[in-house]
C-alpha cells in the first residue's frame, strides 16, 4: 500500500458558482484506522449537486455539515475494505468520497450484498424519485407525469420509474437538445421541454395536451410555475430538488424561490409536498429490491457519466453544474 494518497479539499468559498480553482488536489499520508474504523480503498464516488449548498454556507435545515476552506469534500462512495473489523476485500458503501483512502466507522459502512447486479448502481439517486412517486404522488395507471431536470441523476431514473408504475405519458425538461434526444431515444420519454427554446408553459401545453397529473420536480423556478398552470384537477406534485436555486450564480445554494399561482392550486385541488427520505425509512430497501429486479430484467437503465481519475475531480462539481453530465456524475478511481 502506498504511504500517501490523494484527496480533494475546498480552497475557498466560491464567489458565485464554483470553479475548479475553488478546489485543490492534495497528497497526504494514508490514514491509519482507529478503533472501530475501517480502512477503505475507494473505487467510485458520486458528485452530487447538494455540495453547492454545503460549500456556499447556507446550510440551515440541511442534514449534512457545511464545508469550510481546508475541509475535504465528501459524499457517497464505494470502496474495498483494506483493514479493520470488516472482512478484507469486501465492497462497502459509505460517505467519505473525494479521496483514495477513507476511514469511516464500521457502523457507517454498508456491506454490499449483491442486491444490485453492478456495485456502482448503489450510487444511483433513484430512491428519492421512487419514494416520491410511490408515497407522495402515488402514480396511477394512465397518468401523465412531468419530470423537471429529467437528464440529471434523479430525473433519468424518475421517468423510467413513472413508466414502470403505470404512467401512460412521461414528459421531461432539460436544457440541451442532445439530452432531449437521449431522453426520448434511450429512456422512453414521450416528449421533452427545452429550456431556452421558448416559453416553458407553451412547450408544456404542446408536450402534454391533456394536462399533467403528476409532477416530480427537481428544479423549481419557472418550470414549477409552468407546471401548476398545466396541471389537471387533483394533480399531485412532489418536490425532490431545488436546482434552480442551488445552481444560480446569484445565490449560495440555500434558497430557491418560485412563483406559484395559489388560485390554481385552490381551484384545481392541487397538492404539493416535499420529499424527505428520513420520513419514509422503509423506502430504501423497497427501492433497492425493485431496482435490482428491474436492472436484471432490463426494464430500467442506470445512466451515468464517468470522470476517470481523482486528478480530474476538482473539475467534477463545476462540470456537473455546467450541465456536462447525463444521469449521475461518478468519479472512477
From TrEMBL:
<feature type="domain" description="Enoyl reductase (ER)">
    <location>
        <begin position="19"/>
        <end position="331"/>
    </location>
</feature>
<dbReference type="InterPro" id="IPR036291">
    <property type="entry name" value="NAD(P)-bd_dom_sf"/>
</dbReference>
<dbReference type="InterPro" id="IPR020843">
    <property type="entry name" value="ER"/>
</dbReference>
<dbReference type="InterPro" id="IPR045010">
    <property type="entry name" value="MDR_fam"/>
</dbReference>
<dbReference type="InterPro" id="IPR011032">
    <property type="entry name" value="GroES-like_sf"/>
</dbReference>
<protein>
    <submittedName>
        <fullName>NADP-dependent oxidoreductase</fullName>
    </submittedName>
</protein>
<dbReference type="Pfam" id="PF16884">
    <property type="entry name" value="ADH_N_2"/>
</dbReference>
<dbReference type="InterPro" id="IPR041694">
    <property type="entry name" value="ADH_N_2"/>
</dbReference>
<dbReference type="GO" id="GO:0016628">
    <property type="term" value="F:oxidoreductase activity, acting on the CH-CH group of donors, NAD or NADP as acceptor"/>
</dbReference>
<keyword id="KW-0560">Oxidoreductase</keyword>
<dbReference type="InterPro" id="IPR013149">
    <property type="entry name" value="ADH-like_C"/>
</dbReference>
<dbReference type="Pfam" id="PF00107">
    <property type="entry name" value="ADH_zinc_N"/>
</dbReference>
